Amino acid sequence: MEMETVLRPLAVIGGSVVVTLLAGWLLDLLLRRADARHSETPLWGLLRHCRVPFQVTLCTSLLRGSYRQAHILPGHTLGVGRFLTLVLIASTAWLLVRIAAAVVDAGYARYAAGAPDDARVRRVRTQVTLIHRVVTAIVIAVAAASMLLTFPAMRTVGASLLASAGVLGIVAGIAAQSTLGNLFAGLQIAFGDTVRIGDTVVVDKEWGTVEEITLTFLIVRTWDERRITMPVSYFTSKPYENWSRGGAEMTGSVFLHLDHSAPVPLIREKLEDILKDAPEWDGRSSGLVVTDTTPYTIQVRATVTSKDADDLWTLRCAVREQLIGWLTAQHPDALPRMPSEPAPPLPEAPRQPE
Fold it and tell me: Do strands 206-213 and 200-203 pair parallel, antiparallel, or not at all (unpaired)?
């Protein structure tokens, strides 16, 4: 009898583990074959990441259904059942999150592979990222509530909370209005298409690229690799510059202050030569004009175009550097000169008659 008391729990636990391992191996085999047959979608390969949560869920389910008959820790039946229930809820939530992530990533990968417009790809990427975060938050919230309701004391508390749900909703809304505002702002950004992951923006005089968008905050990576974290409500309540809106192509200016004798036609020809050898120039347009004059200098503006903000910055720096170098070597008189003549002497004050 004592031997049976020891062997039965071990047999049930061992059998559950063996069945779980075999089921996990079989699932992985089927997913690998499906992935090899359907190379047009990465879904089956991504679903292989669900193997571990699937095995944990399956093993816990088998033990949850047989722990009473197996007499596993017979003196603590209630505690064992509650522990297995909590593990089952947590592992099921883990499995659902992994499946949702695989479906979202596969859908985005297929769309990105067939979409020629980069702006649409970034818009869809922003939307699916936020959808995935919303689904994950909902699954975790439901799992946490389910785990709490397994305790009898929490059921009583839950009934009391439901009875006063209206008052609690008002209080929670007032206390968390900032958080809720950011949450709705994140959804507005995702489906309103105002800003997307990968957009080049200027916020608070900082230029950078949108690196990540969550339900409550947004991260902008600046040109010097800094990360600026901002609430998403900023982008729905304050003005900002989005250089990628309507296309990533941009036009930039390079200003030079030169002497009045500067050979503007030759400088214009030199600009064309520089742009022909610059890979950052997209060939759309260019130009050089005199935009202002002062008593000592003229202001020359060169305009160039590039496919995006990063190339435009590099092109502007290259044009400025090469034009200054060419003027210094070939036309030094074109550089601005400050007047250095001595000031005329002051007239002598007339002498007063004695």
Answer: antiparallel
Q: What stretch of H or E contains 221?
A: strand 217-222
pLDDT at 197 over 50: yes
Residue 73: CA count within 13 A, CB half-sphere: 11
Q: For residue 229, list its beta bridge partners.
A: 219
Q: Which residues contact 289 (CB under 8 A, 6 or more apart)?
A: 300, 301
In angstroms, the CA 147 to CA 89 distance is 7
Distance CA 104, CA 101 (A): 5
- What pLDDT band is residue 159 in, cutting at 50, 70 and 90? low
Both tokens of residue 87? 């593990």
In this prediction the pTM is: 0.52
Compute CA 92 distance to the chain's CA centroid, rounded to the nearest angstrom: 28
Residue among 254, 295, 249 nearest 274 (CA): 254
Q: Which amino acid is at 328?
A: T
Q: Is the alpha carbon torsion for 90, 96, 97, 102 positive or negative?
A: positive
3-state SS, 134-182, equals HHHHHHHHHHHHHHHHCCHHHHHHHHHHHHCHHHHHHHHHHHCHHHHHH
Single out the residue of 306, 325, 327, 324 nearest to residue 315, CA to CA.
306
pLDDT at 169: 52
Q: Are 299 and 290 in contact (CB under 8 A)?
A: yes
